[in-house]
UniProtKB/TrEMBL annotation, chains A, B:
Residues 293-315 are annotated as: Disordered. Belongs to the HMG-CoA lyase family. It comes from Steroidobacter flavus. This is Hydroxymethylglutaryl-CoA lyase. GO terms for molecular function: lyase activity. It holds the Pfam family HMGL-like. The lineage of its organism: Bacteria, Pseudomonadati, Pseudomonadota, Gammaproteobacteria, Steroidobacterales. Keywords: Lyase, Metal-binding. The keyword Metal-binding applies. Residues 6-272 form the Pyruvate carboxyltransferase domain. Residues 306-315 have a biased composition (Polar residues). SUPFAM superfamilies: Aldolase.
Length: 315, 315
């Protein structure tokens, strides 16, 4: 049932950098995306075609996509909030457009100023515009719970999946936007989705807000899911939980699944090197553990002297 | 196969505080243990009967155990490194003595200045001294890997379990001392141990050094293990990985297993309140996520104004 190869999809250039207070230069974004490409990520969410007035930090979307080196085998995706964004994105040689909606009416209204039905109508317009030029993925925010409404009924998410499928879209990401999902819920939800929509290209998108991120990835894998959104150095997050962790950390997820015997096609050493440069880019400490501690197979020299300073006293 | 009730055993007063640079007063230790007792922990590792010269911070072992309030149903344990420690511990009304050894010869030499065979001989002396007055638990350090030797063969750990069983000891803790275990290894190792030693009272002890702590707890539960060592606010750690996380965090583990439907008998709200006081006690920031973000069922008011400052932009 478990897959052997896991597709790791980095969202740091969009979901991560978007929330950073320090302005990130276009050339820094290009350098980050190129490093992720060289490290072998399966997909990279490069930018967002939102209104430059609403999100000034993403105003350079076209410049980023013109500037990066495309590595064969890596998919380059961008977030597209509406038809206008889709028109801009179509001119940029992308491998996927990522549309967003929210499973929670309250979150949808607060975050997108639309109802879920408005979102689905907009998706129909985008689909008509894009036709078969680029695959469309739909990311469903708050699919595991909402900071306003609490638990979202799985049946409501499944109903959205039916309506998305009816639009001819075959790729969906279930997003745990505020880090409330638990592994039992992830296992059960993922199993149901894979049973009911077997041909869907399903991605899980977790935040580590409450420390359950990697446990949720594990639960997803146990249900047979083989695609996960992650963010280099755990960048990203949510203003609802200041000080808490953001998206699950790419290098920590890759380190764990490699240790478990899965393949990802990713060069972990290159990823760790790039992750270690992230605090300098964003100007603050970041969440990843493996970049600090080194991988599990790291060896230490025998502590010939100074026993007390090098030993992990019992136990 | 999965258990319904999980025994959460807090090691912060011993494994956590032992590594703290700031001296912790006896009355502060007593207050911490009393708070953990009231919150409903299954077991608390209260202190260590090591030589006061070797570990000055644990010199008040007797005073701590005299000062605490014993709550019925909570087990009070202490670490005992040798026969001399066992003699002191026997006078202190404990529910368990925790003996330590290391599965790795190199780590054993570096950390305990003994071979694993020396440790087993010492355990035999302790068993003869203690007889049936108090149950003995053996904690096996580096059971999942060693910072000097790398991977430890499961067969070597199983051989130790045979020799521990031959000494009449029925409680064992497998310790991932430097946070190198991965969930596949934990699942496989735990399944083997539970099959081969079905009556053993098995505990798993994880560190979150590489972010895999809660995923490893999940793997342990999947193998039917129902006892885990955890540390309030994730205190503890290892000098091999400065800046990295320490023991798995009690409140984050309790939060996860409760969300999954398991019982622990623990009052999570009380635990979170006490965890939030830990930075003031130890004088630095701590690792737990739930104490910062609040539990997953936390609700937020509708963001009537200032959309950009309260929304988690897509997705």
């Amino acid at each position: 049932m478990s897959p052997r190869h896991i597709h790791i999809q980095d969202v740091a250039p969009r979901d991560g950098l978007q929330i950073e207070p320090r302005p990130i230069a276009t050339r820094e974004k290009i350098e980050l995306i190129n490093a992720l490409s060289r490290a072998g990520l399966a997909k990279i969410e490069t930018t967002s075609f939102v209104s430059p007035r609403a999100v000034p930090s993403m105003a350079d979307a076209e410049a980023v996509l013109t500037g990066i080196d495309r590595v064969p085998g890596v998919e380059y995706a961008a977030l597209v909030p509406n038809s206008r964004g889709a028109e801009r994105a179509l001119a940029c040689d992308l491998d996927e457009l990522n549309l967003v909606m929210s499973a929670s009416r309250t979150h949808s209204q607060a975050n997108l100023r639309m109802t879920p039905e408005d979102s689905l109508s907009e998706f129909a317009k985008i689909a008509a515009l894009v036709r078969d030029q680029v695959p469309l993925n739909v990311s469903i925010s708050t699919a595991f719970g909402c900071p306003f409404e609490g638990r979202i009924a799985a049946a409501d998410v499944f109903s959205l999946l039916d309506r998305i499928a009816a639009l001819g879209m075959e790729r969906v990401t279930l997003c745990d936007t505020t880090g409330v999902a638990n592994p039992a819920q992830v296992l059960s939800m993922s199993q149901s989705v894979r049973q009911q929509w077997p041909s869907l290209r399903l991605t899980l998108h977790f935040h580590d807000t409450r420390g359950m991120g990697l446990a949720n990835v594990l639960a997803g894998i146990a249900a047979g899911v083989d695609r996960f959104d992650t963010s280099l150095a755990g960048l990203g997050g949510c203003p609802f939980a200041p000080g808490a962790s953001g998206n699950v950390c790419t290098e920590d997820v890759v380190h764990m699944v490699h240790a478990m015997g899965f393949t990802t096609g990713i060069d972990l050493a290159a990823l760790l090197q790039r992750a270690q440069a992230m605090p300098a880019l964003v100007g603050h400490d970041v969440a990843g553990q493996v970049a600090k501690a080194g991988p599990a197979d790291r060896r230490y020299p025998w502590p010939a002297t100074e026993r007390s300073s090098t030993s992990c006293k019992p136990a």
